[in-house]
Amino acid sequence: MNKSFFKYVFETDAEGNKLRMGDIIRLAKNELGGTVNAAKFALLGDPALQISYPQYKVKTLEINDQPAEQLTDTIKPLSLVSVWGEIQNIKGEKQSGYNGILYPSVYDKSTQAITLGNGGQTPFSYTVQNSILFKGNVSIKSGKFAYSFKVPKEINYRIGNGLIRYYSKDANTDASGSFTQLKLGGSPNSSATDLTGPTVRLFLDNENFVSGNQVSKAPLLIAYLEDESGINTSGSAVGHDITVIIDNKTDGMLILNPYFQSIQDSYKDGKVLFQLPDLDDGVHALKFKVWDLANNSTETEITFTVTSKLTIKKLISYPNPFSEYTDIIAEHNRYGEKMTVNIEIFTQQGVLVDEIKTGMSSNGFTTQPIRWNPGLNNIRLAPGIYHYRVRLTAVDGSTAIKTGQLIFQR
């Protein structure tokens, strides 16, 4: 029944429209000829419901200045590939009003894999096509797009069909598609002239990070990568992945190939965003390694300190001195966390003047500005110095307190 269902789930009717759930189930069950197995299945829901298929299709029209449907050339390793295409409706008409972003993913040829034989089952082989050669981020203007990418040196040299998968979206609609006639293989078409590894810029949590800084317990790794040949994410060569090793624990190596995303309209630049796992308090070292498509590598190392205890590093109030209102911000060590913020205002004699309590998300390592306007609460202040105390409470219940001074003037 599963096989029969998936046979029809992507089919269209005579007018080119995608089938609705009731029709998919009906056709799937009819194909089984009224067997007992088919009778065991029923659709629970609205039979007129249609799956949210993309409205339009992405069509590849030209590759390397040749009509895509007539492409016969074999694309070799280190070749530069140029692709041109458009967004079409189900009738094949270009959608000139479509302006958005296209996400192409280029895959090497399919390979055979084998199951693990779990549960005492006999292992069997199956076909998979999951070696990514390029992931792009391409602008679409007036329904048309164009992009380029370079084929890695270490692909499977066996000649066969690669695959391009597409997903696209604009402000209101989306589109999908694929191209299966991309013939890949053979030996590299030229000797490599690129002998330099990728340029790497590493940050943790935000781009103000400097090696040695304090970070959150599970920091966000941000890596900006650039190379003349492009970044290798194929995973086809052992040891040529984008990798992270923390504290020299090679058995815990993280492979980040799937997290690389090209910068819009460029195959030479891109970034990796990856949330690291929870780390123990203390000083840690991180090694990041990346390869380009010509087999040059770069390894970069940074250190950082994890402190799980909530702390307030600094208080900011602006304007200060103030005559009408002031905005209070607390800088802390919990990146992006939601906080409960409690602010108390005191005279120099310790008399509580006003109190603010609110919950909010953090803007990186700082709370969002909290405005104190005593006039709105009908609080009459004499000019002079006042003290304020900020208490932060994190989701896990930990708290931190810090005090500052305000100067009120008329």
Explain the layout of strands and helices.
Elements: H1 2-8, H2 21-31, H3 36-39, E1 56-63, E2 66-67, E3 80-88, E4 100-107, E5 111-114, E6 125-128, E7 132-135, E8 138-140, E9 144-150, E10 160-170, E11 174-184, E12 199-204, E13 214-215, E14 220-226, E15 243-246, E16 254-255, E17 260-262, E18 269-275, E19 282-291, E20 297-306, E21 312-318, E22 326-332, E23 338-346, E24 352-363, E25 366-367, E26 370-372, E27 384-394, E28 399-408
Parallel strand pairs: 1-11, 13-20
Antiparallel strand pairs: 1-2, 1-3, 3-9, 4-7, 4-8, 4-10, 5-6, 10-11, 12-14, 14-18, 15-16, 15-19, 17-18, 19-20, 21-22, 22-26, 23-24, 23-27, 24-25, 27-28
Helix pairs in contact: 1-2
Describe the structure in your own words.
- There is one protein chain.
- This protein is mainly beta and 410 residues long.
- The chain folds into 4 domains: 2-39, no CATH class; 56-184, Macroglobulin (MG2) domain (Immunoglobulin-like), CATH 2.60.40.1930; 199-306, Immunoglobulin-like (Sandwich), CATH 2.60.40; 312-408, Immunoglobulin-like.
- It has helices at 2-8, 21-31, 36-39, and strands at residues 56-63, 66-67, 80-88, 100-107, 111-114, 125-128, 132-135, 138-140, 144-150, 160-170, 174-184, 199-204, 214-215, 220-226, 243-246, 254-255, 260-262, 269-275, 282-291, 297-306, 312-318, 326-332, 338-346, 352-363, 366-367, 370-372, 384-394, 399-408.
- Strands 1, 2, 3, 4, 7, 8, 9, 10 and 11 form a 9-stranded mixed sheet that branches. Strands 13-20-19-15-16 form a 5-stranded mixed sheet, with no helix packed on it.
- A hairpin with a 2-residue loop joins β24 and β25.
- α1 packs across α2.
- The model has no long low-confidence stretch (mean pLDDT 90).
